[in-house]
Structures are given as C-alpha cells and as structure tokens.
Amino acid sequence: MSQADIYTVSRLNSEVRLTLELQFRQLWLVGEVSNFIAASSGHWYFSLKDQAAQVKVAMFKQSNRYASLQPKNGQQILIRARISVYEPRGEYQLLADMLEPAGDGLLKQQYEQIKATLAAEGLLAPERKKPLPKKVQKVGVVTSPTGAAIRDIITVLKRRAPALEVIIYPCLVQGIQAPAQIYNAIQKAISRNEVDVLLIGRGGGSLEDLWCFNDEQVARLIAHCPIPTVSAVGHEIDFTIADFVADVRAATPSAAAELVSPDQQQQLQLVKSAEQRLQRSMQSYLRQQQPRLTALVHRLTLLDPARRLQQQQQYLDELQLRLQNALLRHIDKAAQQQQFLQHRLQQLTPLVRIKQQQQKLSQHNHQLHQSMQQLLKQKQQQWLLQSSRLHTVSPLATLERGYSISFDEQQQVITDASMLQPGQQVKTQLAKGHFIARIEQISAPSDATN
C-alpha cells in the first residue's frame, strides 16, 4: 500500500464535502423546523424533519438576512439548499440560501415544476409562438362575465376600435372549478373558430387566486390553441404559466385590449420579433458560457476560503453555546447553595425569639387586663357601699319620708319661727320639687312642758 493511499480524517472529510457539493448543486426540501438556534453571530442552525428522518441545516447571516421570516420550532417551511459536510465533526448538513413558508413555497415549487416540464417539451419556446394577426375583426375573451377584467377590456376596445366585435366565453376565474371551466371555454372558442384572437385572463390577486391559470392542462391547451392567444392575467408583476405558453403576454387586461387594437399590431410585431431574437441570442450565449462556468465553479469550490470560514464560524457558535450551558449550570448550582444558606439563616434568625417574647408580652397584657377588671369591680362595690351609707344620712332620705326644708330669701334654712315675718316669702323643698309660700301668721313656739 503506497503512502498516497492512506487518508487522514481531514482529507477524507474534505473530499467527501467536495464530492457532495459538486454532485448536488441545489435542491428544495420541505419539512418541520426543530432545535432552532439563532446564534449571536447572526447565523441560524436548525433541523428539518419529517415523520421518519431529519437533517441538520445551517443558514448563514449573509443568506438569512434576505429571508421573509425567522423560522420557529414546529413550523412547516420550504428551503433551497446545497449539501455540504461540516468537516470538524464529519457530519453532512444542508446550507440553506432561501427560506419561505411551506404553503406558498409548495405552490411556487409546483409552479416551477410545471414551468420546467413545459419548457422541456418546448411549449415555452419563442419559435413556436404565433404572431398576432395584423387585421383583427373579432376578439374572443375567456374570463368571468361579471369581473373587472371584462369591463376594462370592453372600455379600451370601445375607445380604440368601436367597430371591433367582442365575443365572451364566460367561465369562473378563481376556485376549484375554475380550471375546468377555463379549459371548456377555450375548447368552445377553438371549436367555433369565430374570432381572430383570443384574450385569456382576469384581474390581479394572490398566487392562490391566480392558480387556475397555472393548471397544466389549461397551459397545454393554450399552447396548442390554433387561434393566436394573449394572456392577460393579473397585474404587471403577476406571472402565471398561461403567460409563458400564450403567444403574447399582456401586463393587464387593459393592456391586452390595447395590443389587439388595430393601431398596435405593427409595433407589437416589431417588439415581439426583437424579443425573440434577444432570447435566442441569450440562450446561445448561455449555452456557450455554461462549460466555462462549470469549470470556474469547480475551481472556486476547491479554493474558496469562505466555506472554511463558515465552518470556523459554525464551530465558534458551537463553543459559545457550550459556554452558555456551562454558565447556566454554574448559576443553577450557586442558586441552590444560596437557598441552602438562606434556609439555615432563617433557622438562626432572631425573629423566632422576638415572636416568643411577643407571645409572652401578649399573655402579660391579658393578665394585666384581667387584674384591672377585677380591681375596678372591687372599687365599684366599695363605691356602692359608701353611696348607700351616704344616702342613709342624706337629707334627701329625710325628705322622702314626708319631711320638708324651708329657706328664706337668703337661702338660709329656717329652723325657728322667730326668723320669719308676716308677708315674707319662703321656699320649701320637698322630696320631689319645691314651692314658694307667703307667711300669713306666725305662731310662737309652745312650751315644751305644756
């Protein structure tokens, strides 16, 4: 065995990466996001999985800044990516450069697949497209009879060519039944063969609203339609499969009406011829440059330092995540130690002794209150006893037995009749109330011996 046949691990991983990257240029995948990480460097890392398998995905900052959304765990997405190998760990992964929600993304992917299939069959080639007739007398319109598109077309045609006859082939232009109705309307126009040019379209809308004009069967019928066709679907920025297979694409329904008007035919033919020549020239040039581009891509892949820098950035992000996890574990351990010390401090805190002393103080306050109540009751009993004794010797008690007390005008108690004079007023106090009397007669005190 020669020395050249012995591989190092680094050499093996490097050659496997080059083999995968050259073999699989670009692919689309749909799946569910899991383990999403937005690194501080701006790069995104996540796994894309389905029910049976998963694959790791890296989307670097220079690519994800153009993404329409930041994915979330559990979200269904569609990505465009290249297969590569993360050499430090020998793991194969996807390098994503485009990301979008799975719903719209799947429709766009289906759109591209249908377009590619028709292109491979030559149905999109400029050479097979028919020129619009120089003289138009009857215009057929495949659209909804109540939509804004037919009103715009008729308005433009009346303004530019009032004598032009318009025949409407009504159909739905949105919903599940729309493709079949559009197909039948075009078939009716072909079987009748009564118009010089056929306008097919509707007003603007979302990708889902315009999807009936991306139907493969409708596109094939338009491509093989013997009547020159003009696709007039949506606004200027809207492109459908019908636009590519029709003989002419108009930016709007109004623009389509202007194209088929008599005063536009010669200019349209000149522009269309120039466009066809330009497309043929571009296609020829691209075919000539393709081998050189492939060789340059191969050389760039071998020498590209950006790929190694991306791997180093990914390794740096991995180290940073490990550091963050270690810090979190250290913080958790410190928090547990703090809780343990706090528990011990609570056991030794003076608050427990204070609570005990407060309970004793409350007991003493209760005892003091009971003692004061008892002392007050004793004093009340003593007061009642003294009051009873005082009442016994009080003159009020004498008055209550039927006696009275008389006072002169100077409020002196009259104890002797000699203190009175006839005509003098005296006040007599009874047990209840008093009265004032005038002295009419005074009797001398009788002799005690009589």
Radius of gyration: 56 Å
Give the distance, in angstroms, between the N- and C-terminal Cα atoms: 176 Å
* Major sheet size, sense and barrel closure: 5 strands, mixed, barrel
**CATH class of the domain at 125-262, anyone?**
Alpha Beta
Uncertain segments are none
Structural class: alpha/beta
Give the strand content: 15-25%
Give the CATH H-level superfamily of the domain at 125-262: Response regulator
Largest sheet strand order: 1-2-3-5-4
Helix tally equals: 12
Strand tally, please? 13
Mean pLDDT: 86
CATH architecture grouping of the domain at 125-262:
3-Layer(aba) Sandwich
Briefly, what is this?
The protein is α/β, with parallel strands linked by helices and 450 residues long.
Write the topology of this structure.
Elements lengths: L8 H15 L3 E12 L5 E6 L4 E6 L1 H4 L11 E11 L4 E11 H19 L17 E6 L4 H13 L4 E6 L7 H15 L4 E6 L13 H8 L5 E5 L7 H5 L2 E2 L3 H8 L4 H39 L1 H44 L2 H43 L1 H6 L4 E3 L17 E5 L4 E5 L12
Parallel strand pairs: 3-5, 6-7, 6-8, 8-9, 9-10
Antiparallel strand pairs: 1-2, 1-4, 2-3, 4-5, 11-12, 12-13
Catalytic activity: Exonucleolytic cleavage in either 5'- to 3'- or 3'- to 5'-direction to yield nucleoside 5'-phosphates
Subcellular location: Cytoplasm
Keywords: Cytoplasm, Exonuclease, Hydrolase, Nuclease
Attribute tags:
Exodeoxyribonuclease 7 large subunit, OB fold (Dihydrolipoamide Acetyltransferase, E2P), 13 strands, 5-stranded mixed barrel, single chain, alpha/beta, 450 residues, Rossmann fold, elongated
